[in-house]
User: Fold these one by one.
Assistant:
Number 1:
Amino acid sequence: MTDLLTLKDRRRLTPDTHAYTFTRPEGFSFTPGHATELAIQREGWREKGRPFTFTSLPDADHLEFVIKSYPDHEGVTDQLPTLRAGEMVAIEAPFGALSDRGPGTFIAAGAGITPFLAILRARAASRRLGGCRLIYTNKTAADIILHDELSALPGLTSHFTVTDEAAPGVEKARIDRGWLKGRIEDVSGRFYLCGPQGFVDDIRSALQDLGASRDMIHTEEGW
Ligand SMILES: Cc1cc2nc3c(=O)[nH]c(=O)nc-3n(C[C@H](O)[C@H](O)[C@H](O)COP(=O)(O)OP(=O)(O)OC[C@H]3O[C@@H](n4cnc5c(N)ncnc54)[C@H](O)[C@@H]3O)c2cc1C
């Protein structure tokens, strides 16, 4: 089923990422971690639906998406920051591979934080973040999406790493088998991975190498 949403607000989170707040259709529901195909309702863009993840709380009165733009090509993510309040997008039925299956270690790169933002916000709202840990990697500290909010989630243990330049409060490191080995005490726990396909593939094999079981590693593929 297609639903039309009206843009209420857009705010910049990092140099290339915005949070978009839309109206929520009556009776619309989704599971934290799930995505939808979203198409801008402008001439020439209606047929170009792309997958994006809901980041608002499931019972909020609005729908939010956090979207990274790729201005190096004229795609949907480059067009989205030009939307003005009052313009519309169409969304399809929610879908997704990631959802909350219990406390665990959430490992994200870049815009791959979005399903975890939804899941961790929902857990925070019901004070269920005990036993949850976030490992979030980006190129630079300025690229970290919602750094302050994620650092302040009560009960969540967070590690922020950057690969390209050192900065206060973040570790300059590449997340690989060696880095994970020093930090993951219990490989029998649950793991959630999201980010570019190469990142997901590398972290999944590093975790399996360290002894994690394949069925305890949950991933969203095809970013
Ligand atoms: C289930 C799912 C959920 C997602 N949720 C989110 C989310 O919540 N937030 C978010 O920011 N992203 C999310 N993504 C990723 C998002 O869907 C893509 O970034 C988006 O589809 C890109 O659309 P586009 O029209 O801008 O790029 P397209 O033109 O469709 O290009 C697709 C990809 O090809 C590459 N590419 C194509 N042309 C070029 C070029 N000339 N130069 C460089 N690279 C190029 C880019 O990597 C680009 O991401 C999600 C993906 C999936 C599968």
Number 2:
Amino acid sequence: MQYRVNPKNNEEISALGFGCMRFHKDEREVERQIRYAIEQGVNYFDTAYMYGNSEAILGRILSKDGLREKVKIATKMPYYMVRKNQDFNRFFNTELERLQTDYIDYYLMHMVTDLKSWRGLCDLGIREWVAEKKSSGRIRNIGFSFHGVQSEFFALLDDYDWDFCMIQFNYLDEYVQAGKAGLEYAGSKGIPVIVMEPLRGGTLVQKLPKEALDLLNHAPVKRSPADWGLRWVLNHPQVLCVLSGMGTRQMVEENIATASDAYPDKLTEEELTLYTGVRDAIRAATKVSCTGCGYCMPCPKDVNIPMCFSSLNDTMIKGKIMSLYWYILMTAEHNASLCVQCGKCESHCPQAIPIREKMKQVQRELEGFPYKPMRFILERVLNKV
Ligand code: SF4
Ligand code: SF4
């Protein structure tokens, strides 16, 4: 495993971090994967209060055989649910309990979008609360995960003595959100950066258009799309660790192999040019830049927003009929035509997607002919099955 040194505390962190947002459904399999990852040197595990039962599962696994002491746990406070000072302890203590630990190595304010939100927390006493937790050893490093525009990222970095931060960064989003400039600014301040969404929620793996895949497949060196994606992120020296959500043992093995070899500035000019071509090919095939994160959900009208957008993008990759087939199967009672244009979802979208406008596009492109006859037939066929 490649380790990178945290410039703030000289701690060695594995270049690959285990993203714990979605685990395999069998907890015994999760345990096998986590044990294997630790054996191979992965020492950073990222979860959050809001990731369902992820903290509890991670806590159960790490409480065995001294595993807790071998790793750093990162978890996150759902700061957007904090209403009063006492909520800080309420969320934090629940997380300690779930994780079966009495300290958190890397604690983040989850999904901060702007300076105003952070200042709101300051008004509730977050600075004093963090200072107390750090002095008692309950929190070792304090940071924030960010989804917002670049200017707000700069403002946040300047407003507080952060130990680290976390941003979305991948070869498709080089200039989106904090972006490369944000990464470099953090680096210039000596603030280590953890990277999330290195494969853009799988878009850079399973959903690559044919033209992009062809470019990768014809590269002089043979690598999987996931390998290319992680390697691009790790090429940046400011990146301390890249998180990957790994649902199978094979993914764990492949990602470990990549992280063990992808050192900063290792990519050649030729390889970097290849990414430009792949990026262009993907953009040409995408209608909406949804990552599928689900932060816009739930919709009061039960529209499955990420699925609607995924289907819209699929029309460029799989063609209209196949996309429509999946659109009907996945969104029958949750389709775009249920949208009443209330706009409640838009402020939660880290990609700043004009969801209302795009919903109209989904309706236009997917719910015109042959939506109704196809849905009629599919429902009959499925009912028979
Ligand atoms: S604008 Fe449409 S998709 Fe968004 S929350 Fe309102 S009804 Fe749901
Ligand atoms: S529309 Fe935005 S918030 Fe909703 S899933 Fe897509 S990227 Fe995430």
